[in-house]
Design a protein that fits this description.
The chain is elongated, with a radius of gyration of 28 Å. The chain contains 20 helices and 11 strands. α14 crosses α19. It has a 6-stranded mixed sheet, with helices on both faces. The chain has a 5-stranded parallel sheet with strand order 9-8-7-10-11. It is an alpha/beta fold.
């Protein structure tokens, strides 16, 4: 099935859940026919994985999300595997090195990672490397994340799947109990393994420098503890499709116990599905934004109120010579990517919306001074304090539809409720670091962002500079690990009001034209 055209492909191959066992069963005594059949089967499977990955990337590009999802490393590895399998498929099937090449293939790992990724939501990376280092400071060890520039392998942790918009790190390990025991033996923690097991483990992994499972997870946990996504450390999950919840080996059970004591969620074979859906049925969930993590009701910033009201957000606006550069640029951007249908309306969904009195008043001031007639009309429909306060939600949507070239969602929860707030009362409910945040905020931004913070509401805004400053201030002055700042979701772009020519805005009491107020508050 194609996610882009919505047509089902009844001949699409399904996941080969037994492939890995068949690869391991391919020993030196396998016939030429068995070896050739296995090479062909692995080729087909790898081809399917690449096709699904490319379909996922095509969907991301269609949704203009390709830049927010990192799959280059995973895709490069999969292409390398395809190249190897193509070579093995034409090699002499009677040669031991052909059988060894098939047994040593990483296809099973890529297959498992991709299959598990299809069960997650808001996937933002596959095979992402996090670099970190320790810095000594008065005897304390503090971690610091590095995006690049380090060559020390001990300072690198690889996350196989980054999902939940960055909040979940998943490590997938295809290790068997025998493999874990072999790792322990190499490290001097277990008795000698048999020569047969040695041969099997060497065929699975020829990299003698690869750290054991515990070392890998320890590095991952350390990297997560110096990484924050929206003020929180990502959770770490280890998925072991070939390990039972109660292993046969006591040593393996101790390894799982040790990993869980690190705070890692461990999923074993009983919790891993053996049936994985085709990409077409899960592609939207995989590529979703973090809307599912929003609060039940949303706090709407003045910048978004203006975007809802602006003529620029509702259809084609012809450029005029009196438009400033910001307006001209927004016209170009809107022609390429419609802000409301592709960004703001999906973010809002059918959630209730509120805004502070200060945000509402500021928006209305700007609209009254420079707004066009259609912008003024939309502004009155947005808020529940307007003269149209008796209109039902359905009536408001119908009226809004008359003023937009786009299909206004029927579930859009108009009107936006206006709330009165008390800053001193709000500050009393916030952590001490809020005093530092308060110092850098304007009056209107105090009302918007502090209100969202104190109530736990997701704040929808396009004011990226303020959002970044709030986050950096909190991280620089936090006094504990538990402090959580305001949940701010930033729109991909902003919209000003189109407004009117200065000469047509009228003059103030001093006979001077009003200054442009269409820009962000």
């Amino acid at each position: 099935m194609s996610a882009t055209n919505g047509k089902a492909d009844s001949h699409a191959p399904q996941p080969d859940n037994e492939l890995d066992e068949k690869i391991l069963a391919l020993d030196i005594s396998a016939s030429a026919e068995e070896t050739q059949a296995m090479a062909t089967r692995m080729q087909q499977r790898c081809k399917l994985l690449l096709e699904e990955l490319e379909e996922f990337q095509a969907h991301l590009k269609q949704q203009k999300k390709e830049k927010r999802v990192e799959v280059r490393a995973f895709k490069t590895g999969l292409y390398a595997e395809m190249k190897l399998l193509n070579k093995l498929a034409v090699s002499d099937p009677n040669e031991p090195k052909t059988k060894h090449g098939l047994r040593s293939s990483n296809l099973s790992f890529f297959d498992t990672v991709w299959s598990i990724a299809k069960t997650r939501s808001s996937v933002v990376a596959l095979g992402k490397r996090f670099f970190w280092q320790h810095e000594q400071n008065n005897g304390d060890t503090n971690g610091k994340v590095l995006t690049r520039g380090t060559r020390h392998r001990k300072d690198v942790a690889t996350v196989d799947i980054v999902s939940q918009d960055g909040m979940e790190w998943i490590k997938v390990s295809s290790r068997t109990e025998k493999r874990i025991i072999w790792d322990l033996t190499r490290a001097g923690w277990a008795g000698d393994s048999s020569s047969d097991e040695d041969d099997e483990m060497q065929s699975l992994d020829d990299d003698d420098d690869e750290p054991g499972l515990v070392k890998q997870i320890e590095a991952l946990v350390k990297a997560s503890r110096v990484t924050r996504i929206r003020y929180r450390h990502p959770t770490v999950r280890l998925i072991l499709p070939k390990i039972k919840a109660v292993p046969d080996s006591k040593e393996v059970g101790n390894v799982l116990k040790q990993i869980r004591e690190l705070g890692v969620d461990v999923q074993t074979s009983e919790e891993v599905s053996s049936e994985y859906p085709p990409i077409s049925s899960v592609i939207h969930r995989m590529a979703s934004d973090r809307f599912e993590f929003f609060s039940e009701s949303l706090n709407i910033d003045c910048t978004i109120l203006l975007a809802f009201a602006s003529d620029l957000s509702h259809g084609r606006v012809e450029p005029e010579d009196w438009h400033n550069k910001a307006i001209s640029r927004q016209i170009e951007v809107e022609n390429q990517d419609q802000l409301l249908p592709s960004n703001l309306w999906p973010a809002c969904g059918n959630r209730k919306m509120v805004c502070t009195r200060a945000a509402a008043v500021r928006m209305q001031e700007i609209v009254d001074i420079i707004g066009t007639e259609t912008e003024k009309r939309r502004a009155t429909l947005l808020l529940d304090t307007s003269t149209d306060c008796q209109l039902s939600r359905e009536d408001r949507i119908r009226e809004f539809q008359k003023l937009s070239d786009y299909a206004v969602p029927l579930g859009w929860a108009l009107p936006i409720a206006v709330v009165d707030i008390d800053i001193p009362e709000i500050m009393a409910s916030l952590p001490p670091v809020a005093e530092k945040v308060l110092e850098s905020l304007t009056s209107i931004n105090k009302s918007v962002f502090l209100y969202g913070w104190s109530t736990g509401k997701t704040t929808i805004s396009s004011n990226g500079a303020v959002a970044k400053d709030v986050e950096s201030t909190i991280e620089a002055h936090r006094m504990d690990e538990e402090t959580i700042g305001p949940d701010i979701w930033l729109s991909a772009s902003s919209r000003s009001l189109v407004g009117k020519e200065k000469e047509r805005r009228g003059a103030n009491s001093n006979g001077q034209s009003h200054a442009p107020l269409a820009t962000l508050p």
